Amino acid sequence: MAQVPQTFFDALAVRTWCGLALEALGRAREEIDAINVYPVADGDTGTNLYLTVESAVGAVEAVFAGHEVGAEVAGKPSLADAARAMAHGALIGAQGNSGTILAQLLRGMAQVLAAEGETPHTDGSGLRLALRHAADSARQAVAHPVEGTVLSVASAAADAAMGAEGDCGAVARAAYEGARAALAATPGQLAVLGRAGVVDAGGRGLVAVLAALVETFTGEAPAAVALFGGHARVQTDTAAAESTLVTEDCASAPGGGPAFEVIYLLEAEDAAVDRLRVRLDALGDSLVVVGGDGLWNVHVHVDDAGAAVEAGVEAGRPYRIRITHFGVGDVHTTGGRRPLREQVQRAVVAVVPGEGLAGLYTEAGATTVLARPGEPPASGELVDAVRRAHAREVVLLPNDADLRHTAAAAAEQARTEGIRVALIPTRSAVQGIAALAVHEPERRFDEDVVSMTSAAGATRYAEVAVAEHQSWTMAGICQAGDVLGLIDGDVAVIGSDVTLTAETVLDRMLQAGGELVTLVLGDEAPDSVADRLETRVRESYLAVDTVVYRGGRQGALLLIGVE
Question: The pTM is what?
Fold first, then answer.
């Protein structure tokens, strides 16, 4: 069905474009993964681009949802709000080399679209400027730009757009055609692509994103014409993809190339980031640093992953740190064909709210996804974690009632890839702890899932947090700064003291009985609260044990589980 076209670049156009781009990358993901041979033949470029755009979509949708809730009169956010959300979402969710560059392309566009001035950048002229600035800023973000990559495709798109006349539809179509032609030329620009007989994977993804831009402003997707000319072919079936990757004998730097990919978000000042670029450039290759205004996404390939993270610590505060080993006899030295590690039979994948619990879950053998306050993981992140678990059977613990649908979507996607997934609807990390405690991989899958589900369901959960604003609750009206005690997701206690509120919550939970109390303390919880609660249980509730964990920066001051 044809898309209703947008006339100008407004907030709705941003929303439509992001949604269509996500759909396009979803359809092309496997094809793009299959032709990924540069800078590392690790077959994940399509997936990384998809996850990056999925994060952008989530941020834009959050802006629209917030506007609908907060506005007295229904309407929509401004172009600046939507464009900035798109850029921020892509930045914090950027995955891999190509995803990081795409995040900078979207940020470059947003800087023009959201710019304040007498002339709004909402028409064809504004789109031309946005595409030009996007291509230039992406090139500047890469330490050593290489032609025949997504950078070449982006520059060609901007060049074609600058020569176009007319509305946004005309400019978008010109950019798409310019990108398509540049993509077909990439095998002649980069020898590794020519030898493998493929076009650049990142550039292929950008063409899909630009096709979505055309559909946004014309109502129709570009005609299904061959994107690849001459020897720039695409092989999408498994055998063909493997043969394509085997033909590549060096995916990156001569002499083997670095063994690790390091990615992290970084809170730092501009001057510190300039010094960081110099240091990381000396440590490895494929260096891309994107962002600004105090928040950056850092991507580099190195042999010393610890040194790359330490450099980030010296520059500011790195977090969401992700280190990926390219494999034994890695793709740099095995002609792009990585020996697959043997699949395990069963694994547990869990969403956790803080670094402390992430360590606890990891020690118990789970693959974890860290959910920071206000930044819930997208379904793509959960699918990626299921893949990283590398198991035939996976038990998925979302540990948050609000992640139910996200986790269900991730489970369904993983099942299409041949992985057997059971979703246990845990609503708190303490329920996940209870489930993990009875997990036995040696049992039959169904029996293990039933046992874990039963343990989670028998665990009542609560949290103690601070109210951010005035609101109506089940326990009455709370004011900003009040201490809230939530039991099974509903506010049950409103107080002013953290310890007293926690004691009241615990008493109410234990009135129904219990044998074990689990306390998970956040970084901002008073040091004395655990001792007070343990004493309370010991003196008032015979035969009830207590266990205490440190959760780190988990949002809530305290999590409580009673089973």
Answer: 0.61
